[in-house]
Amino acid sequence: xxxxxxxxxxxxxxxxxxxxxxxxxxxxxxxxxxxxxxxxxxxxxxxxxxxxxxxxxxxxxxxxxxxxxxxxxxxxxxxxxxxxxxxxxxxxxxxxxxxxxxxxxxxxxxxxxxxx
Length: 116
Fold this sequence. Notes:
By secondary structure, the chain is mainly α. The chain has 5 helices and 2 strands; from the N terminus they run αβαβααα. The protein folds into 2 domains: 1-43, no CATH class; 46-116, no CATH class.
């Protein structure tokens, strides 16, 4: 998180599920000690509120479909390739947010395709 904060030069907002490591006293202390970090805790068993679930869904339908990975490096490359494709499609990211009922602060225009 610190690296992301330094790279972006601004505050970080996290949406966390109820994973036990997210709920520890040490993690709460860490969040409290860093004013640039804001955490919103999602309710238990509410994947429909987590925009990351939409990203995982896109990945499962893309480069991870019907693939037998030979090693961890193969899986890592496939994940990076899939995330890179999503990164350049802000409309997909906006859709993942919209599905949760969250509205993106800035709507990115969908790139237009030139007629062939």
